[in-house]
Amino acid sequence: MKGLVLIFFLPILAFAQDVRFASQPTSSLHHYLELYSTTDTQIVATDKLLTFVDKLTAKKDDFKTDKAFLNYLFTKTHQRFLRNYKEYSSFNDLLDKGYYNCLTGTALYALLLDHFELPYRIIETNYHIFLMVETSAGEVLLETTDPANGFTDSKSEIEKRIHVYRRNEIQKANTDKRYYRFSFDLYNEVSLDEMLGLLYYNQAIKAYNDHQWVNSIAYLEKASSRYKSPRLEEFSRIILLSLAESKLDPSLKENYIRKIQSVRKHRLADMQANASAGDSF
């Protein structure tokens, strides 16, 4: 393949809605845990995490403030599950092997915050995602890739970090690779359901970089059905360009192109339906 084969897509990695009060029933932990665990082909037991949640529950009343409990939750979760940073790891890699990235780490913390009814927001930028938590003592920023300083409660430090995130600059994991830069600037609040779409999106990116076209398109289709984002639209265009420039068998290439066009067609139909609903409001 020419040209684009040398450009690597980054997953959402290191460095939606109003402020989200965790109003889901406690069974939502099991619900979303099951959904997030189906975003790759591994079969991983969730017993360790559920046992860990029970231990956190037993300790919760020992803390005088919600902020103190949040600090404990952040530290213990990192120690127990987030052991080694790995750029393209899946949610199941986190549960099973302790491999994590910005997205999967944030997904895990969001599930815990939701379960313990701590008001939170999930903030998505082009190449990063993080958490803002509202406590009785003020806001706390949680940076899941920073075990030492990822719990930030200083207002000035929070502002500095957010300023860096909003610049949407690529943090290169490998200086020998050329990374694709998006044409937009994201700073969105996303829900637990939309987080599922982003988990699928990261798997689509991984498959694309491995030249696994069928898997990449299948993951992109799942991502698109759960989260309407400009990152998905732009990525689908890149797949089409890559396919067009590839040296694949013509019949195979045509089949792949039809698949990705079908994904784009469904997305366009959704956008038009949403626009029509907005016009009638």
The tally of beta strands, per DSSP, is 9
> What separation lies between the terminal Cα atoms?
48 Å
The string of secondary-structure elements, in order, is EHHHEHEHEEEEHEEHHHH
Question: Shape from CA axes?
Answer: globular
Helix content bin: 40-55%
Oligomer: single chain
Order of strands, widest sheet: 7-6-5-4-9
- What is the count of helical runs? 10
Beta-strand percentage?
5-15%
**Unreliable residue stretches:** 1-9, 14-26, 271-281
Overall radius of gyration: 20 Å
- Global structural class: alpha/beta
* Total separate domains: 1
Mean pLDDT: 83
Report the sheet with the most strands, covering strand number, pairing sense and barrel closure.
Answer: 5 strands, antiparallel
Task: Describe the structure concisely.
The protein is an alpha/beta fold. It has helices at residues 28-36, 47-60, 66-81, 91-97, 102-115, 155-166, 192-209, 213-224, 230-245, 250-280, and strands spanning 7-8, 84-85, 99-100, 120-125, 129-135, 138-142, 151-152, 178-179, 187-190.
Give the SSE layout.
Blueprint: E1 7-8, H1 28-36, H2 47-60, H3 66-81, E2 84-85, H4 91-97, E3 99-100, H5 102-115, E4 120-125, E5 129-135, E6 138-142, E7 151-152, H6 155-166, E8 178-179, E9 187-190, H7 192-209, H8 213-224, H9 230-245, H10 250-280
Parallel strand pairs: 1-8, 2-3
Antiparallel strand pairs: 4-5, 4-9, 5-6, 6-7
Could you describe the 3D structure shown?
- With 281 residues, this protein is of the alpha/beta class.
- It is 53% helix and 11% strand.
- It contains 10 helices and 9 strands.
- It has helices at residues 28-36, 47-60, 66-81, 91-97, 102-115, 155-166, 192-209, 213-224, 230-245, 250-280, and strands spanning 7-8, 84-85, 99-100, 120-125, 129-135, 138-142, 151-152, 178-179, 187-190.
- The strands form 3 sheets. It has a 5-stranded antiparallel beta sheet with strand order 7-6-5-4-9, sandwiched between helices. It has a two-stranded parallel sheet with strand order 1-8. Strands 2-3 form a two-stranded parallel sheet.
- The chain is globular, with a radius of gyration of 20 Å.
